[in-house]
Amino acid sequence: MSQEVQTENKMGNKPMLPLILSMSLPAMFSMTIMAMYNVVDSIFIGNYDQAGLTAISLAYPLQLFLIAAAVGTAIGVNSLVSRKLGEKDFSMANAAATHGLVTCLFTYAVFLALGIFAVEPFMGLFTSDAHTADCGVQYLRVVLCFSIFSTIQVMIEKMLQATGNMIYPMLFQLLGAIVNIIFDPLMIFGIGFFPEMGVTGAAIATVFGQFCGMLFAIIVLFKKNHQIEVTLKGFRPQAAIFKNIYSVGLPSIIMQSIGAIMMLGINSIFMAAGSAVSVTVFGIYFKLQSFVFMPCFGLNQGVMPVIGYNYGARNRQRVYSALKCGIVIALIIMFIGVLLMWLIPDRLISMFGGGQELMDVGVPAFRIISLCFLPAAAGILFTTLFQAVGKGVRSLLMSVCRQLVILLPVAFALSLTAGVQAVWYAFPIAEIGCLILAVCFFLNLVKGDFKKLN
After folding, report:
1. What single DSSP character describes residue 450?
2. Residues 38-45: what's their mean pLDDT?
3. Whether the predicted pLDDT of 151 surpasses 60
4. What local confidence, expressed as pLDDT, does residue 83 receive?
5. pTM of the predicted model, to two decimals?
6. For residues 97 and 231, what is the distance between their CA atoms, to the nearest angstrom?
7. Using one digit for the tens of pLDDT, what is the confidence trace for 195-243?
């Protein structure tokens, strides 16, 4: 049986819940592994130097910009490849994958320049403490200047996921995370023949893990058989393909970059209120919440090609079915996250070192913010639907409303009227508002484009 027929039988006919689980579980696992990169760094750094923990919390928004650019572009490639496979246009699917690999060079050039020229003034904007600023500069310079490794790895992951292959992307990330976890303590604390490098050691361990994952991904892409074929020989760039990639990818980049802007804004609110400990708490929360949100994003990676394929095949019933299954699974994941944040917030915070002040601020903050998890579950799946059917602008508008139009103004108003601890309530308020907008967008899609499907 040909790969094309196998894909049709799987994506177009297999019962939806087993299909979603088979497609999503490897990606959910791999995204959870991906969350380990920054969490492991933060745990070791927090126990090595609390100023270093504050530094990487302040530096994290620039890392988010990098992740947004790499993942957003790859989502554009994933959406185009899966739609072309659903339409049986295999030549265009191959061309889209090849162009996707080329876009990695564009992304890297931007962040190489930022790593060389922008990290010192960036850290100077948020702290006057020389040690904290120096830690942030050391970490960012390594991570950004060697970002080509993670950029290529993410792109290849999304290419293979568009064909329904979720196992190899999971293995790429698993390898990188294992390497990072092994080398983090060795390079931070100077164990064995490794010198003690502190924050710089954490950055080097992270980059080395990404290099190993990228190398594995390249070998698999070019040495194994896949439904898509990437070849750079005789490559000629086509503006129409780049335009198609970025029509979904650019809104996704902006959408995910908004998270970095949000984090910059929240950090600024806390620093203006003179609460550096709140910056540290927010940084810890942002790392830990990735263990709840990353499985949902992994779920998206399984759901998106299913929706994209069946949208391309004009099968409305299976598009709806994939969306429903995804929302139910996401709600279960998020409910577990709420329980953990309410039952053991002190144990979660204690992993990062720190004293009683960190605990006094962090425990109530974790419980308040976690109220946003359940409405976020449905909102994330609606975002996936819009991206899968080529409506990336709607996903962008949802993120703008969630993290800029609603969250930051509400957080700022609460900090002025009710104190800095009330800022945490802005997160559930923003998620509820975003979910209402998502439902309106979805109903518009039901009455419009979806009526044309069989």
Report:
1. G
2. 83
3. yes
4. 86
5. 0.77
6. 9
7. 999 999 999 999 999 999 999 999 999 988 888 888 888 788 899 999 9
Count of C-beta atoms within a 10 Å radius of residue 105: 11
Distance (Å, whole) CA 314 – CA 114: 43
Buried b (16+ CB within 10 A) or exposed e, 232-268: eeeeeeeeebbebbbbbbbbbbbbbbbbbbbbbbbbe
Reduce the secondary structure of 412-447 to three states and give it as a string: HHHHHHCCHHHHHHHHHHHHHHHHHHHHHHHHHHHH
Report the distance separating Cα 116 and Cα 449, nearest Å. Answer: 46
Maximum distance among all alpha carbons in the chain? 66
- Average pLDDT, integer, range 391-401: 82
**Which residues have C-beta within 8 Å of that of residue 61, sequence separation ≥ 6?**
260, 261, 263, 264, 267
Task: Show the CA angle centred on residue 402, arms to residues 153 and 263, nearest 5°.
Answer: 60
Q: How far apart are CA 304 and CA 323, in angstroms?
A: 9
Structure tokens at 141: 């310079």
- pLDDT, residue 369, reads 94
Tokens (6 digits) for 448 = 């419009």
Q: How confident is the model at residue 391 (pLDDT cuts 50, 70, 90)?
A: confident
SS (H, E, C) the chain: CCHHHHHHHHHHHCCHHHHHHHHHHHHHHHHHHHHHHHHHHHHHHHHHCHHHHHHHHHHHHHHHHHHHHHHHHHHHHHHHHHHHHHCCCHHHHHHHHHHHHHHHHHHHHHHHHHHHHCHHHHHHCCCCCHHHHHHHHHHHHHHHHCCHHHHHHHHHHHHHHHCCCCHHHHHHHHHHHHHHHHHHHHHHHCCCCCCCCHHHHHHHHHHHHHHHHHHHHHHHHHHCCCCCCCCCCCCCCCHHHHHHHHHHHHHHHHHHHHHHHHHHHHHHHHHHCCCHHHHHHHHHHHHHCHHHHHHHHHHHHHHHHHHHHHHHCCCHHHHHHHHHHHHHHHHHHHHHHHHHHHHCHHHHHHCCCCCHHHHHHHHHHHHHHHHHHHHHHHHHHHHHHHHHCCCHHHHHHHHHHHHHHHHHHHHHHHHHHCCHHHHHHHHHHHHHHHHHHHHHHHHHHHHCHHHHCC
Instruction: List pLDDT tens digits, range 352-389.
Output: 876 788 899 999 999 999 999 999 999 999 988 988 88
Mean pLDDT in residue range 6-14: 63
Tokens of residue 248, six digits: 């979904």
